[in-house]
Every structure is written in C-alpha cells, then in structure tokens.
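Recall from the previous lesson that a structure prediction takes nothing but the amino acid sequence as input. Here we apply that procedure to Conjugal transfer protein TraR from Escherichia coli. The sequence below is the only information supplied.
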Amino acid sequence: MKTIFTALILSATLVTSSGALAANALAPFEGVSSDPGEESPDSGDPCVAVTCLYGQMTGNSQNECNAAVKAFKSIKATKKHGIFDPVKTLKKRTKFINGCPSADPDIVKQILKKFGKLKSF
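The prediction returns the following tokens.
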C-alpha cells in the first residue's frame, strides 16, 4: 500500500517503549494515496500531527507535513492581555494529540515534552 508518509514511517521507525515496531503506525494513513494530484491528509487530524511531529523531532520531516505541523503550532492559549501562556497551551495541545487513540503514549509524551509549551518552533 502506498502512502504519503511511507518514507517518514520507514526512516523514523516509530517504536514503542519496549523497542517493538508500532503496529498501528500506518493506520491513520490507510487509503491515502501518494499521487500528487490528490489532496494531502487532513492537517487537523491528530494522528497525522503525531506522525509529522515525531518525524520533525527525529529529523525526518516531510513537505507533506507542513500543514499538520502548522495546525499543531496554531494551538495556543493566552493569559490576560494576549500574553502567551505555555501551561494552558500545553493543556490544549495535549487534548488535541490525545485525540489519536492509536498513538504510542511514549511518543506522545516525547512530542509534548519537546513542542507542547513552545510558542513557535
């Protein structure tokens, strides 16, 4: 099965904490074609964001991930007077990422630890 993120998945090799290959790593991309004439995956899908952010974290980012990473970055919270609030931002981003039931919890923790509180990255 061809997918847009085949190279990302193969090069990043999503693994569980025990070192086993995450069997559900491709689940969010079933039926997604690599044909450039077709639409890219939904940038608002938390499973796409997990895969793309993990790729970015491991140095394997892909152009197809730009929209998903941008959507994750756009989740921000502010204090009074519009001042960025990293703690509230982390809570909002955690809620979004937890919308992907097939994501490995250890990978989610790594992503949130690295990107959860950042205003921009």
